Amino acid sequence: MHELAIAQGLLKVIREELKRHQLCHVTTIKLKIGELTSIVPESLDFCFSILVKDTELEGVSLEIDKVPVKGRCLGCKREFNYKNQDFYFLCPYCGSEIEIINGRELYIQEIEGEQDGQNTCSEEYTRGK
């Protein structure tokens, strides 16, 4: 279950960002997770909730945006989406080799919270694109 290690890494980054942007209260963490990462969103959410229990981050909502797998042909340059885990490594149009252009993402897209007790604000943090 690599979701626990990922949740621990997320927690470390979130705490660093809290300090860096002087956020006093976090409400939502928005994540981008590619389908090729094999991360189970429910497992990640469960692990994260266990790690933040009885901390300043308890009750924070994780919003996970799954990024579908997308390929591009190195020959004809067409782009295409993979469906239902039906992965192939040759272009479905011309048979040339392909490259994966989406689906490996794993980053924090946004951290929403309050800054120094003022109005609700959003602080963006993008990593690993």
TrEMBL record:
Zinc as UniProt keyword: yes
Pfam families noted in UniProt: HypA
InterPro entries associated with the record: HypA/HybF
Binding site for Zn(2+): 73, 76, 91, 94
The entry's keywords: Metal-binding, Nickel, Zinc
HAMAP family, per the entry: HypA_HybF
PANTHER family tied to this protein: HYDROGENASE MATURATION FACTOR HYPA
Reported function: Involved in the maturation of [NiFe] hydrogenases. Required for nickel insertion into the metal center of the hydrogenase.
Name the record gives this protein: Hydrogenase maturation factor HypA
Natural source organism: Desulfofervidus auxilii
Phylogenetic classification of the source organism: Bacteria, Pseudomonadati, Thermodesulfobacteriota, Candidatus Desulfofervidia, Candidatus Desulfofervidales
